[in-house]
Amino acid sequence: MQQVSNPSLVKRWRSLVAVCLTLPLLLVTAHASEHRRTLEAESVVVTEHRAQINGQRVDYKVYAGFLPVWDEDGHPTATLQYTYYERQGVREQARRPIMFSFNGGPGSASVWMHIAYTGPKSLRVDDEGFPIQPYGVKDNPHSVLDATDIVFVNPVNTGYSRVLPGPDGNMPSRERQREMFFGVNSDVQYLAEWMNTFVTRYQRWRSPKFLIGESYGTTRVAGLAHALQNQQWMYINGVVLVSPTDMGIDREGPVKAANRLPYYAAAAWYHQQLDPALQELDLYELLPEVEAFTIDTYLPALARGAWLGEQERNAVAAQVARYSGLSEQVVLQSNLDVDTAFFWKELLRDEGLTIGRLDSRYTGIDRQDVGVRPDFNSELTSWLHSFTPAINYYLREELGVETDIKYNMFGPVHPWDRSNNNTGPQLRQAMAQNPFMNVLFQVGYYDGATNYFDAKYSMWQLDPSGKMRDRLFFEGYRSGHMMYLRNEDLRLSNEHLREFILHSLPDEGQPARY
Fold first, then answer.
1. What percentage of the chain exceeds 70 in pLDDT?
2. pLDDT at 440
3. Judgement on whether residues 63 and 104 belong to the same structural domain of the protein
4. Phi/psi at 47 (5° precision)
């Protein structure tokens, strides 16, 4: 092989080789950059539709869009995906209510109430809420769109909503993102700012405003009611709490243990695990009896702990067993405090089944019948079965949203900062500041995650003075966490919601005063 002795020629040869090797990498990099999954900070697709709702024809527009969250310097830090339903043909928009809808998690998209509860489309499931194929959506004749416009909001990292790069083009650190978005109070702060932008853009400042939240979304809207009124000067007519969390209201210790029993009774009744005398009762006849025992006997017994006498302990255990469908031995071995996960595993253990956490009508099968908790949440797997394909189909194929971003049913928002959660007291303060504001609780009796009696207890404690009792409303349903999945409760819960909205609109000329 002939050697090249000219140094200049060698140098040019090496440069040529370097270029030849680098050029394909540059082309690949450029090509990859062109195909990155990115989102515009702001965009919207508008479509027009018609539906039969509550016995009348409703023409409406859908705005499926993205709207930024800005920092104090005016830089977009995130973009939130929303779906806004606006009824057409309204004579006076200033009198037309608008309702902002949030789901929970934290980390959950707004999909659940969007295509299964209040929106003009509902999930294709059977009458009890179980998945069927082909997946998709159908018209929802029970939607409240006849009574209020609706905005379904996906918080950061849920649905298509995402954090955006900073002014330098780099993504904020994970710790910085957590400070901005992923905590009880930061969540409320940026969403309040975003709602101000939305209301301004769509010229809805004069409209009566409502907030609805489900599960952790109740913590969110309780805090938002206060933040909107005190930081954005935006006043709210009503707040709806669907399957509420504690919202910072203390329910620990004996209260937490005792409050489970009415739910246990409801689940055991549904699965026919109670004695014949109780099983013959209707659920609405059974629950008041169990609630009275819980408050008058069970809670005081738990509070006395080890100082409860043996005879009384045995008597309480016998009654707890009777109402829960469990054995007296199990109740005594649990020191009268039966854990919920154990209950889901134990109730139908002899039949080789577990029951669902969020909706105990659902059953599952575990690898082993022994153990203290189910292997999986049977209800959640069933829901994801039907919701995930439906929302992807609906947004993309019916509403025209075009993006390669994945729709996050549950997004990366953890660890979530739960410190300084005072949203319950903040909701009470917001009510006190605004004589127009009412609050509605909606719960499912078979919900074991945010059980209905906890919700009732929170309502009792929300305003201990009792001065606002006539502005607090409570409705329960023969279903679970998402009570609207059962067709009869879809009708009934929307009917109650519609009545609440209309009740919370003041008469013309009525002043906001005590």
1. 93
2. 98
3. yes
4. -130, 160
Is there a domain that residue 4 lies in? no
- Structural tokens at position 480: 């679970």
Which residue from 352, 92, 123, 318 is spatially nearest to 208, judged by alpha carbons? Answer: 92
Mark whether 59 and 115 lie in a shared domain.
yes
63 shares a domain with 209: yes
Residues 265, 287: contact at Cβ < 8 Å?
yes
| 477 close to 443: Cβ distance less than 8 angstroms | yes
Helices and strands counted in the chain (H then E): 17, 14
* Same domain membership, residue 206 and residue 90: yes
**Closest listed residue to residue 443, CA positions, set 239, 241, 210, 223:** 241
> Would you call 23 exposed, middle or buried from its count of C-beta atoms within 10 A (0-12, 13-18, 19+)?
exposed
Distance CA(69)–CA(41), nearest Å, equals 9
Residue whose tokens read 């014949």: 276
3-state secondary structure string, 157-209? CCECCEECCCCCCCCCCHHHHHHHHCEHHHHHHHHHHHHHHHHHHCCCCCCCE
Q: How many domains does the chain have?
A: 2
Number of Cβ within a 10 Å radius of residue 75: 14
Q: Are residues 212 and 147 in the same domain?
A: yes
pLDDT per position as a tens digit, 186-218: 999 999 999 999 999 999 999 999 999 999 999
Read off the tokens for 460: 């009792």
Q: What's the chain's length in residues?
A: 514
Angle between helices 452-462 and 260-270 (to 10 degrees): 150
DSSP 258-288: HTHHHHHHHHHHHTT-S-HHHHTS-HHHHHH
> How would you class 273 by CB atoms within 10 Å of its CB: exposed for 0-12, middle for 13-18, buried for 19 or more?
buried
My answer on whether 83 and 196 are in the same domain is yes
CA distances from 151 to 279, 305, 318 (A): 42, 48, 49
Q: Is residue 28 part of a domain?
A: no
| pTM of structure | 0.92
Quick one: what percent of the chain has pLDDT higher than 90? Answer: 91
CA distance 379 to 481: 10
| Maximum C-alpha span of the chain | 106
The pairing of strands 363-364 and 438-444 is unpaired
